[in-house]
Structures
1.
Amino acid sequence: MSIKHDGKIIIVSGPSGVGKSTICKEVVRKLDNVFLSVSATTRPKSGIEVDGRDYWFLTREEFEKRIRAGMFFEYAEVFGNLYGTPKDKVDEAIKEGKDVILEIDVQGARKVKNMYPDAKMIFILAPTQKDIAKRLYGRARDEKKVVEERLNGASSEIAAAWQYYEHMVINDDLQQAVNEVIQIIEGNVGE
């Protein structure tokens, strides 16, 4: 009979357009026993996104109802939309001994780190600000005004990351970034 250990929390954050989602999905694909939490949001779903896979898309009213019911691990308002991590799925995965990746913003990351001081915090960066702009405009998901808001918010997120995150990964080469995140999760990188 094997002893079951509770899983750990891995926080992955970074400005919009740096490739966080792609990196997280690749890490989950390559590692056994890792669960990627799907966040809930009030932002409108794009044409290519799938409810329950990319996000749980909720109305503001439903989201606020779930906040009052204590159903979120963490939540924050970002660029006028609410984002949160459903508590039930995270708790279930941790109890099963799985490592849980939370792809969340800096605000949410700080809340989780206060609750789980052992959480590993990884911040994903693009090589340059110009790369972030190119990626955001290239994905054609948001209106120009929203892209500009996201670009303006990137600088403050990056400044906060240098203060609070233990690990910084530059996504210049996707496979290299994925491998670096895996090394961090597996504990093969100095703290």
2.
Amino acid sequence: MDPVFLITGASSGIGAATARHAAQAGYRLVLGARTEEKLQQLQDELGGPERALIGRLDVTSWDDQQALVAQAVDRYGRLDVTFANAGVGHEKGFEAGDPEDVREMILTNVYGPYLTIRAAASALRETKGHVLITSSIAGRRALAGSLYSSTKFAATGMAEAARLDFNGTGVRVTVIEPGMVETPGFPHPELDATLTADDIARTVLYAVLQPPHVDVNEILIRPTAQES
């Protein structure tokens, strides 16, 4: 029976690219995002509902998170990989932007992955599965005035905390920390060649496809041209 790979923030960018690479590797997919139209298009591309389930997902909603995992287990009978990928950014500066937008970013980038892990934990223990979290290079070094950076420090710490919590269960945990990636909403005109969503997707599959006794805990990946 083909293993099952759940992705949040799956409608575009890194999430959609990872879905395509996981499908090529033989996984059945469970795809969650706020934009149902894009999810439907991706489902059609990846083989329809027999190979890819979709669900509207607000990652800050406990009910939505539980429902997506339940959909995976009810339909496919198992869950093997959970990729907590959904995230949003915000402009730098502690006096910049709308505080409500900052609040939403913190909930999405920190509370969201926590809910994803919590919702999937029991099913992943059954399969000795794998948790992945999208953090950032901004979760390794602070950026001036960046609450986004603060949320990614939290995501990086959450991955290690989850690894310790799952220790002894066979569940593996990996945090992915991209540098500059050309994805919707995150342009980087200062570099001639940034990373692509496909570059990150290949990195995710590298970690996932290791033998069960190999737990790649942390991957920091930068464009060659990125200085810091």
3.
Amino acid sequence: MYNEIENLNTERQNIATGTIAKTFIANVFSWMTLALTITGIVAYLFGTNEEYTSLIITPTGFTGLGYFAMFAPIGFVLIMSFAFNKLSSTALLGLFLAYSFVMGMSMSTIFLAYKAASIYMTFGITAGTFGFMAVLGYTTKTDLTKFGSIMIMGLWGIMLASIVNIFAGSSAMATLISIVGVLVFTGLTAYDVQKLKRIGSGVEYGTEASSKLAMMGALNLYLDFINLFIMLLRLFGDRRN
């Protein structure tokens, strides 16, 4: 009888933990979706409306706002990451939404480089790939920790190779970076979702800490999605003449 009661209590605890994890993951994806929506709308407005586009780039090059849009996202990510413990959930949310808006301005330039139909098709492919890997990461019983470590090493490799190629200007290297980038960010999606599932199982739902962790998790998945989209667009996007 005692064993049956203990097993029942364990089962109830597992169900409760699983429910909290699902709620946490749902919050993560809600924030990520909101951020992607803001980025998409802003990118479309600044990329297709000549009046807005001229605020970012002119025939002579980027404007001051354009340079801000290019480099400010890095600052946002650094602030959110290093000041995580000091920031309130409200401040973190404000930074995340501002970041997604500025990223939209930054990404608006893709409409100048690629045909709109190609952008939309690549976005659909990215969404499908991301969704599949997210489900895989959430449902798999395999521990992806070692796999994730390899992906992170690959990410550092991409960053270093990209810096080198700024000076080298090799189209072959750019293509190789994009191919590796697709593999890396596809893998990171599954790894990050599994990691967030574990985090969600250990947090107390409804607290300030859980809200902040959900937003940082959304930022990670947002970056996975955006980078996967960019790499696919570089590989398969139909460029304007």
